[in-house]
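Quick entry between incubations.
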Amino acid sequence: MTALVTLPVLLPLLAAALSLMLTRFATIQRLLGLIVLLLIVLDAAWLLQVVDSEGPVVVQLGGHAAPFGITMIADRLAALLLLVSAVVTLSVLLFSIGQRITDYGRDTSSTAFHPMYLVLCSGVSLAYVSGDLFNLFVAFEIMLAASYVLITRRTTASRIRAGMTYVIVSLAASLLFITMIALVYAATGTVNLADLADKMGALPDGIQLGLSLLMLVVFGIKAAMVPLHFWLPDSYPTAPAPITAVFAGLLTKVGVYAMIRTQTLVFDHMESWTVLLVLGSLTMIVGALGAIAQDDINRLLSFLLVSHIGFMLFGLALFNELGMTGAILYVVHHIIVQASLFLACGLVTRHTGTVSVNGMSGVAKAYPLIAVLFALPALSLAGIPPFSGFIAKIALFQAGVQEATPIAYVATGAAILTSLLTLYAVGRVWVVSFWGEPSTPHPDPDPTDELIVGTRVTSRSMTTATGGLVAAGLLIIFVAGPLSGISERAATDLLDPSSYREVVLGDSAIAGGGE
Amino acid sequence: MPLLLAAVLLGVAVGFAPGTTAEQYLPWMPTLDVGFALRLDGLSLLFSLLVLVIGAGVLAYSARYLGTSGNHGSFYLLMTAFAAAMLLLVLADNLVVLFVAWEATTLCSFFLIARSGPKAREPAIRTLLVTAAGGLSLLAALAVIVVGTGTTGLSEALASPIWQESAGFSIAVAALLAGAAFTKSAQFPFQSWLPDSMVAITPVSAYLHAAAMVKAGIYLLLRFSPVLAGETVWMVLLISAGLTTALFGAIAALRRTDLKELLAYSTMSQLGLLVAMIGIGTPAALTTAVVHTVAHALFKSALFMLIGVIDKRAGTRDIRELAGLRLRMPVTATVLGLAAASMAGIPLLLGFVSKELMFAAFLETPGPGWVPVLVTALGAATAVLTFAYSGRIVLGAFSGRNGNTVREASAPFYSVPALGAIAGLAPGIAPFVLDGLVSDAASATAGEAVQAELVLWHGLNPALAISAVVLSVGTMLVLARRRVDTVLAPVRFPFSGLAIVDALRSVVVRFGATVGELAGSRAPRYHLAVPMICVSAIALIAVFTVDSLPPIVGSPAEPLDWTLVALVLVGVVAAVRAQTRIAAIVVIGVVGFAMTLWYFVLGAADVALTQLLVEILTVCVMVLLLRRLPARFGKQPLRNRIPAGIIAIGAGLATAAGVWALTGRREMSEAASFFVREGETATGGSNIVNTILVDFRAMDTLGELTVLGVAGIAVAALLHSRHPTAVRSAHLDRGTPLADARANSVFVRTTTRLLGPVIVALSLLLLLRGHYEPGGGFIAALIGGAGFTLLYLAAPTDSAARVRWPYLTLIGAGIVISAGTGYLGYLEGSFLTPLHVEILGIKLTSALLFDIGVYSSVIGIVLAAFNLLGRRHRILHDDDQPPASKEVSYR
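Done. Structure below.
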């Protein structure tokens, strides 16, 4: 059973290494990736079922009891996100393969893409199941290192420079992360998350506050929390569509996940956290405002991405069960929807040859299927019922009102305003770009750039992948019952981490711990 | 299809005992208490009938209106979807489902307006914005209700005692609900979208903007009347907004020449009356509201459809243009007159019945004495104006006496509106036929049993007197309509709602553009400033909140430490001040070597060795890069350097404060003492650093060696797709001895030949003994890497260097070996558990295998650096070439 936890990390890693050694065999490379990610989807689904019925699954690596070795643990939240992420990574890989075959032919293999993509998947999985702060850092490093390659490969010099913004900011975040770990270890003598939960309580309040704020900043950079978001709209749009899709869908969410995990497990937040409420509201508003004036569709979506991170922060900041449920639902919804939007946009720009909203028109008439694939997630993002975004929003709004403090009301108001601005932003894209008479495609400005546009060629697997992801988003409507059930149980686990500590440290450690 | 549904529903209604309700429940999100709960009571029944009957009528009419040519599939689909949404809205017994339906009607209306052509886009967007804002107001209201009452069930929520107990709660809900209803029903100040949306085709206007969607707001208000009627905020909001809209809508209607626009303003005005009546909230007023809803739905949809008929036949619907045409449409004219008469409130029509009731209700408005007077006066004024514009419609449409003759439309075309108009006649003469339906609806609305007795003749009472006045003044206005036109011409709406929406929108967009521009810089200093400022801010917060720190354990600082700190500091300052890149690298090297020394002083031999080797290799690789970069750093102006300096120093001080406050204040950690005490028994290795690397925290090592490998691939990917900037050529005089590379490298080559085998042996030795003595895969590989560095440096030319190994395969193999070893651990219980085997008396452990993986990867990355950066490479894989024959086909 414990293999269920390690496989999502190790399988893609092994596959990445094999893929690196098999660069001469294009088909094998492709199949390897697809099979591995499919296996992870199955693994995660099984794991979720197991975890939901029997409680968290713990692996003490090397058989060393916590806190001496490294702990991997899958609880409901981790298993749920593993599953959702695996669905997204699988779809995006299918899309990429379709795109690569269309553009380079069936026999072209890749040194960088397949191995790095799998390494990225491995890092994401490790971040979810890691029960150790330093190991979490390693997970981030794996994920980020692979993302550096993916964002800078096969692109123009000016895009590489934009990619460097991403690399530099991420490295700075890593530097802060490792500094934070050093300080945490210096203060508490442990990096095991469950153990930290015990030891942190013994420190003076001010130190606890400082460390928790430092963690907020570290993960806030990754999650693009305002005012740490500036890098995101500058760098994400420079990557090819499938890469942006997986970055936007997953990487920011891993930051949010780490934030949720550390703030609930390690620190004692008895009531709603004003700082985070304010930052969450700012994130929502600033992102949405930034989005409405953009002309580059990818940049517009990137701002919306920032904006909607605010919803998750809002849910987390409330530190009550409903808020946490809402945050989890929102993460699940947003991973899928944001990724599908970027994929759909990729399809659109391939046909229109431009990323400029004003530069294209009549997409709905010329490519009705693609228009539908864009419209459904866009409506969901705007929180239009009965799509997934709406389901997540109900819980958040209820939570905000339930909290009944002035700042919670303000945050709820900000959430409502953001929904409206989002609707306006995607509505404008729809009206300007999708309606009207089809425009002639712009020619591809630079054929060596993988942001290939205006080729008019999409393969069936690209549309299938996008369609599959959109369908996954729609599926949320129908499984809303069980999904909100799991999310609520996951939220309960988060707010009362005693069972998490118990399974990691054993009962005795809890009894002796300084709770 | 709606016809069928309506029939079924009617069947249900017939066998429906008064006052009972039917319920249906399907769970959706049980944990969030959301399910498809449907409930049919009097109010729902009445609205369902309206939605279905009028929907069926409009669809039948559309078939004629649109004709058989063209593709109208999406129209019928959207109309049917709209009807379904509306039906769900009035039947929902769950607040969330109610909201879902509400938003669905908004969306359908957006698409229905938008599909009417390019000029419909702006109105569609504006309509969407206004109604979606209202939707969010509704959502907020529902959230408040759900939290307050603890249920999402509509009828349960309405039954909660909180409405009476908490004034604040009721006020909040009342204000939010009113906001939602006002946007949907086009009430002041959200009225602007309704006339705007008239760009939609006539059937859409007839259904959505006369009979159905705008009634959603009315339904919502009626639905919550049982708990909110009598609430002061509710009354004030509804009555004032309702009457304002009623009056101004009527005035505006009188000024229009486009008949459809006139009807739009008239709809606003009539809805205003309805809202005001609901605001009054007495059972009589609510009953009136119900009756008037029915009356309005009938005559307004009929009017819209008739104007559509005229428009289709005459090719215009503007009064001024119609005056130049001779309309010979007797049936249409009669029916139009009938419907307009109902709107004007002329006896024998349902409009009269409802207007009579309305005045009676207005007169009984609760509150101080002047309120009923004012309300009735405004209501009467509106009624007069209504009469006037009703007359204007009929007379305006058929006033032309000369010009081209327009003939009557075919019977199926006008039959549907005719039915609607006649349907207003029957209950007008015998209003009691509606008694049952209205009583049920009014009972549901008033929260108490209401027995409506609709009669034509109420006897001589104030309401009748007012009606008489209204009729006579109205007739005068119609007769003197030219004069009225000139008087009203300069009158304008206090402010144009459209202008406000547009102004608001452009302000927000401009602000958004500014916000968007805040990002958009590629200079790293902007991106790095915020996180670093955050670090300083956190330190400041901590300084002010921390009152006491744990005592320092032992005496952690030795004098030598301070010397090393000084050394590091010198290195840092020198690096910041360095003008050339090479100088910067050298002084950063100083910092690195100072750190190495520090590790040695502390007794961490392995860490120190690693640090040393990494330092050496880093310098070698960096020098390879330096060849391609400008020698000097670009000059930064002082205004950039000063803030950057302040931020950097702040962050540095903050980190230093953190280190001071947190380190050295506890005993050795649990984990550390465990490693020291039990490390060897647990792992079989005596080198703690190595056992941590390959055993206790092997997963971290596996991860980090992946990161290293990825770095190698990153270089490969970058360099293979783009040619790097050229190497700066040294200006070397060919005549000097320095120019001959082969001769110059003799010494190094000889040294290498001697040292090479030693280095390889040392590297392998360190790998093997790593578990027990200083060494291990990482250090061993770095030493091996140093060997390759020597080979590279000793070679006379870049291409002659014997470093051409398959580095990517080495990296991949390293990861496979390490990860694979991890899985071997399952033989013994858990992932990454090391296995110990004794072969021929030699103790072997799988940790060694793991270390070999590390070794392979690290060697791979060192080789990658020299191969990729140190040599002129050719593009290796197909993927990394620009696609040779990409299909580009433009039509």
